[in-house]
Automatic annotation (TrEMBL), chain A:
Keywords, in A-Z order: Membrane, Protein transport, Transport
Superkingdom of origin: Eukaryota
Record's protein name: Beta-adaptin-like protein
GO molecular function, one term: clathrin binding
Compositionally biased tracts (Low complexity): 72-83
GO CC aspect terms: clathrin adaptor complex; endomembrane system
Function, as annotated: Subunit of clathrin-associated adaptor protein complex that plays a role in protein sorting in the late-Golgi/trans-Golgi network (TGN) and/or endosomes. The AP complexes mediate both the recruitment of clathrin to membranes and the recognition of sorting signals within the cytosolic tails of transmembrane cargo molecules.
TrEMBL record, chain B:
Stored Gene3D superfamilies: 3.30.450.60, Mu homology domain, subdomain B
Localization per Swiss-Prot or TrEMBL: Endomembrane system
Lineage, opening ranks: Eukaryota, Viridiplantae, Streptophyta, Embryophyta, Tracheophyta
Protein species of origin: Brassica oleracea var. oleracea
Similarity-based family: Belongs to the adaptor complexes medium subunit family.
Domain of life: Eukaryota
UniProt name for this protein: MHD domain-containing protein
Entries under Pfam families matching the protein: Adap_comp_sub, Clat_adaptor_s
Amino acid sequence: IVGVFFFHLSTHETPPVNQNISTILAAPSSDLSSILSDRVTSRWFLLRWISRRTNSNHISTATISAMPPPAASSRYPSPSQPSGKSEVTDLKSQLRQLAGSRAPGVDDSKRDLFKKVISYMTIGIDVSSVFGEMVMCSATSDIVLKKMCYLYVGNYAKGNPDLSLLTINFLQRDCKDEDPMIRGLALRSLCSLRVPNLVEYLLGPLGSGLKDNNSYVRTIAVTGVLKLYHISASTCIDAEFPATLKSLMLHDSDAQVVANCLAALQEIWSLEASHSEEACREKESLLSKPLIYYFLNRIKEFNEWAQCLILELAVKYVPSDSNDIFDIMNLLEDRLQHANGAVVLATVKVFLQLTLSMTDVHQQVYERIKSPLLTLVSSGSPEQSYAILSHLHLLVVRAPFIFASDYKHFYCQYNEPSYVKKLKLEMLTAIANESNTYEIVTELCEYAANVDIEIARESIRAVGKIALQQYDVNAIVDRLLQFLEMEKDYVTAETLVLVKDLLRKHPQWSHDCISVVGGISSKNIQEPKAKAALIWMLGEYAQDMSDAPYILENLIENWEEEHSAEVRLHLLTAAMKCFFKRAPETQKALGIALAAGIADFHQDVHDRALFYYRVLQYDVHVAERVVSPPQQAVSAFADTQSSEIKDRIFDEFNSLSVIYQKPSYIFTDKEHRGPFEFSDELGSTSITPEVSSDIVPAQQFEANDKDLLLSTDEKDDNKGLSSNNGSAYTAPYESSNISSQMQELAISGPAASATTTQSSFDFDDLLGLGLSTAPAPTPSPPLLKLNARAALDPRAFQQKWRQLPISLSQEYSVNPQGIAALTVPQSLIKHMQSHSIHCIASGGQSPNFKFFFFAQKEAEPLDYLTECIINSSSAKAQIKVKADEQSTSQAFATVFETALSKFGMP
Amino acid sequence: MMISQFFVLSQRGDNIVFRDYRAEVPKGSTETFFRKVKFWKEDANAEAPPIFNVDGVNYFHVKVVGLYFVATTRVNVSPSLVLELLQRIARVIKDYLGVLNEDSFRKNFVLVYELLDEVIDFGYVQTTSTEVLKSYVFNEPIVIAPARLQPIDPAAIFTQGAKRMPGTAVTKSVVANDPSGRRREEIFVDIIEKISVTFSSSGYILTSEIDGTIQMKSYLSGNPEIRIALNEDLNIGRGGRSVYDYRSSSGSGVILDDCNFHESVRLDSFDSDRTLSLVPPDGEFPVMNYRMTQEFKPPFHVNTLIEEAGRLKAEVIIKIRAEFPSDIIANTITVQMPLPNFTSRASFELEPGAAGQKSDFKETNKMLEWSLKKIVGGAEHTLRAKLTFSQEFHGNITKEAGPVSMTFTIPMYNVSKLQVKYLQIAKKSSSYNPYRWVRYVTQANSYVARI
């Protein structure tokens, strides 16, 4: 490409620019994403590119000297650098000529020049050097010219504070113009200068702008106050602008003025709240019932964007009783039929949050919102569909049973972008149940032959996941095995991994699977994951696969060529397992493997080989018990995302958290988490709504399902190993690997006989989960003394709860007496208080109660915050502890548990 | 909300417009964005999702007529709000420029800046109503010749088929004056239906759905109120029945699963007589979106056969039959079918006397392509292809090829039978009789036949 281009350059005075742009862009090494199409500037760009290449190599000096020397070698030319210099200088002199002219038609010439300036600005050429001339030319009554000038000034003022002073004069004058259009525009530009030492000039125009009789000017003035706040918060507060905005918000007749006031006040007060008690109060006053109703009652007067703003506010509102809830829902019901997806999602969020404590209604909300959301998915552009679908995905994963009969809506269409298909595959996996699995798996099998290989892989994985979550896997196993017959490399690879997982959960299928897997030639499998899976099966089922030792031997002989450490680790283990079952055939291969392993440069491979070697040396029978114990079926694979995280994302419905499937603290810095973030956890429970079931006639669901709705499935939480790190494997694989290693350790310990049956608890404990059932005596933590008279105001609690990470998450059993006493939730609060653990908020109704407690270490200002969810039907309490001092949170949990265990006892 | 920047990039990545509202995002965001979108993954097939995060900056984009409309923010905003907004900005700009493409954009970028200044202030959306914006925008659009219009937007489909329609009408700017100096009083109502059908290998319908829009574009002066009457037997919601219960469609009524409406639409008498009343704002907007899974007769029947013919050969026969009345003509039909990976050559045999048909084998992605200019209702067309393989194959050949997918446009035809019975314009004068265009069109969204 370079060569071709030089040819042009050396044979033509002006290279045929446009043809070359695309070729240059096609060169992956260049990062010239902002190639310009304007002829002049393109040349500038191309030359720049060349001059950069010259630094690296092989251009004759003659070629270089043929170019204009400076040719902008920097990416962002500063005024001192002459990028496009001649053009800018030209402009400058032309502008100067026009500045004083009053000739007829001068405005038209000015317009042309201004356009040129702005087009340079757009494509990134620095035209700040004509600042003075632009300001001089702005003495005109032509509004189009004025607007261009404002745009220019707004762009360069910040970098040129001295020059900005030049503009103040004419902007201030324009702020008093008789045309409201000009007043507004001038005021907007004035506030957009972003120059701190000019703020004093803003106060007057802003003050009169807020009182202007034209609503256009007022809307701009309100946003101007917010801009001022960001330039100089103290100036804004001292001028008491927030108070003025508040009164405008309550009394102005123009809806957009009101909406801007709301937006500005939310931003200002949220930022102020961290250091001002008053701002805190003001911020909360936005959530008072009269104000919320004031907004909601006139919501239709606002445009759709302002409606979103109001709905976001309403989400934070804590209703006083169930009538309140139903009033709001009835009022907003028709918003669900809005064509704007943002309005619908904001409304859905209000509905979901309001009904969190009313299980039946919450369920009805799911039923109600299903159809509007599906319509939005199919009516918008692919991008809009994706945003809506991501939210549906969240709801589907939370309450799959509600969507079980709608599975056909989540079938992939052949022309959808892959990001949409991936979401749909996950949704299909989530909603598969007894009644629809057959159809879903049939559909997924069609995708496995898809031309899009990535989607084909995902589809196979989806089939595997469905197989793992079903009890009746009969038909699915057949399908999986059929994949192997397709003889496509990637299909085979994915399928092998799945068959391995399936066997770990359902060993009873080994016979069918192994006979098919045995027929696969290991030569055709290149992907490490698939190879590892095959090797695992060879080791595990060596007695059923007649040539297992020979296949392994073959693989071991090619040890040097095996690049993946994961595969080599598996080879070692498989060789061991095979050896115990068919020693004579394997002995030689095992020897080679151990020797190669001990000499391996990879630390883990080396260590494992050495370990096997020593255990074998010590006692072969012990080695067998360690490496190849009787098979144990895995009951459930660990979920990749904890329920805490899932709940957090649900609380952040209608935000990016749903798209990224991560809570916001992971991807945003604190100041940007949201303009108006309250602790949702507290918001929804700090009241105890007296909801009796006769208010709402609703379908009854099993208690199980209710749990699912209120918080994501937490049942698996303590079965799996919720977190482990430092291993290079992926999640489902990881847990098993660690547990099998743990098992090895546990058995070799003194308590060998006892642990074989209870081993799963042992593993948990070794991983530091501290389950009370663990037989190993944990060293009792030092006794923690708590301050009986500790005090913490709710706001500070909210803030802390938001900031601190969870240091401990546990589940305790509550004794029957305690459950009985819980019919009066207040009794638990009193009880805990007698143990110096104070309640700050509580809520919920049978069977789910939620409490927030805090306690303080005696003599030290260190707080412990606890969320405690008690399910009275399962008699379990789940607690999450956040502490200032992480190291003593276990000690605190012990105190908490002791206190809880005494609840209800005489 | 709070958007930090808005910009439009061309396909090659040059800035066409760039506006920074809050100065929170570091310089170079356009380049960061473009690089990320271009090289999303090693695998060139994977498209970048519309929303992603690089170094704490969230990038949103929608693609309109080959241009990237991008917004950035650091705040955890509502994703659909931003995407909806980007889409809306594109529509507003189109309303003003008449035609939306890179050329018209470049010629009018100052006007676009004017619009952007009023649409967003300090990151907060102010208004996206073409109507409201009219009073703030002073640049006259430089309208580019409609002849250069590429058939990208739904409106363009009308320029090909229905002769009754003046093709340029929908590319008029809402503000530009006619060369004749006189504005023509007219209003366009388009019923656009996109249909998705999946046929099983044995030819029965696995899934089917109609996604419809009633789109309106009004050039009426004085914004008179309008009433639109739909079918009287229109039903919305399928009650407690399962959505895919095909037996329920015995009655002749049109049953929509669900629908939503533009905010200007009033539904006061919708329940009683199925009329919508509204004062149409300027510019183009969807009056109503609807979704229907009620059984309908698919416009095309597709029959595909693939058979081995010797060790390194196979034959493909594709037959399509138009199942609509003979006074209706479908146009721009394409049929695609992925062939087995080891196909090295394909030779085609079109039916005798075939006019306006083309067939092709795309070597790079092993795709069979067959295009037809038009198909008259009731007609049947066949394509035969002889394939040559580069290697011997054992196994099931049907698993290596397909599915067959189709795209088409059928003007003046809609499968749902939803109709605009009348369009009433409330204006006092009896001599006032503006042009009313009511048009129907059916398009394939995903039309797939498995083999």
